[in-house]
TrEMBL record, chain A:
PANTHER family: ACETATE COA-TRANSFERASE YDIF, CHOLESTEROL RING-CLEAVING HYDROLASE IPDB SUBUNIT
Organism domain of life: Archaea
InterPro entries: CoA_trans_fam_I, NagB/RpiA_transferase-like
Native species: Salinigranum rubrum
Pfam families: CoA_trans (PF01144)
Protein name, as recorded: CoA transferase
UniProt GO molecular function: CoA-transferase activity
Keywords tagged on the record: Transferase
SUPFAM superfamilies (UniProt xref): NagB/RpiA/CoA transferase-like
Transferase recorded as keyword: yes
Amino acid sequence: MASEGVGGDHEYTARELMVSAAAREISDGDVAFVGMRLPLIAFQVAVSTHAPNATSVFESGVVRGDAAEGFIHTMCDLPNLNRAVSTTRMLDVMGRLARGDIDVGFLGGAEIDRYGNLNTTRVHAGDREIRLPGSGGACDIACMADRTVVLMAHEPRRFVERVEYVTSPGHGDGGDWREREGLPGGGPSALVTTKASFGFEDGELYVKSCHPGVSLDEVREDFPWDLRAKSDLTGDAGGAVETTPEPTAEELDLIRTFDPDGFWTR
Amino acid sequence: MPADKTTSMAEAIGRIDRGSTVAAGLALEHAIPSAAGHELIRQGVEDLTLVGPISDVLFDQFVAADLVSQVRAAWVGNVSAGSGYNYRRAVEGGEIDVENHSNFSIALSLHAAELGVPYLPTRSLLGSDIAAEPHLRVTEDPFEGERVVQVPAIAPDWTFVHVQRASPAGDAHLWGNTGVTYEGVRAADRVVVTAEEVVDESVITSDPSRTRITREQVDAVVEVPFGAHPSPLAGRYHRDNDFYLEYAESTRDPDDAAAWLDEWVYGVDDRAAYMEKIDRDLSVEEPTVAAEVTYGQ
């Protein structure tokens, strides 16, 4: 199974698969609002393969049209500033987001719920409240990007019926909630975990594909509600669930070039 | 000749009163003014309100030193390692008051203050629990009736900025990404500029398009090489990622966190002594030199 570091034709880690899946969410010509951690690598893979005309923007004020030369821990590491298209200010970049010019944004979260609402502010472990770092730019991306892609480790404690604190709004309680709230962006269109890829239908999460070696039942077990699969939506109940494509050899080469020590992806 | 505002770090930070609102770390993970921050800790200026978008570990260190009453920020932690453990403990223990923001709402708060208006509207934050907090208001825009969130102005008493070079008068060149640095400078009552290098005014005026901080906004100018370590500074030095990882390990436990402050802040006199302890080469090996820019005459 992928999380054990073994794939079909070649070995890869679950995080490498997530990066490849995230990279495929960036279309050629997209302007992508790139968050921290895995999306840093995903954009570089996308722009080096199928999306040479994609542009990345970072809330720190960086605009890039290519992969950074050298490993980046953060969006402000010097390789990401070096030979960028522009190193500017946050309002320049957030202004593009607020105006509706960002096609896709990336988000993470400690908790996600049935409708893709994300919590990165505070959670409970039993009776104990745990303070998390907070929104950063996540709430802004969640509110205003045309679509968002969420990346999370596949751990049952992260999947909750309703998040304790809505740091970054998803589809609220489903249906036309975002429209009623007056939110300008389209909200989450995909969730990629270490076990499966998910979509949203009428604002509610469903399983789109399971990663190689993972069964649908295994994925469903980790959710506290009756999680729908793509086959439930198409009326093909009982139909086989799709398998997430493995990262290609080229993608793996690139991931290991951009993250040579596996700091983010191993 | 404009007034020469160069001074020592100790003297500059000595001007800051207990109970001040201080903005710092405004360029996000880049150019964090930690040398100024460490002097603030050494001088034990208490009851601070901290303002900033993400801060990386600097705010966590202020909290560890027990200087903080309130945090008005979008994110407080350690970007390389995740949590800021001192901040976490203090919030969980109810010791500090937190006003949750997003990066954009902090930017708008400072932008409102620099424009001299009481608030600015946005369609970000709608539907979030951040918007439901008492420091923000969800209202209708008076023209079209659409829902908007009103973000109040925040005017810091002091803003700390670290730059590559500044003139003795306080005109500064800062390059690389700048986050909300300029908004934070113009929103503030008073500003401390720390610079890798204090340069002759003619260096600044040779490239006025790079000058975004000007003399009338600046109270003090302090020359302090490596003043942003462990954060990176464009053209000068890389992020010291191992330092962030070691900081995380050293602050999981409150006793260890106190020892960390003793070793890295209280136990060193100044930034030069601090950098003596860093045994890593962070220098930029192959600087990218910008194409020549020409101006008038």
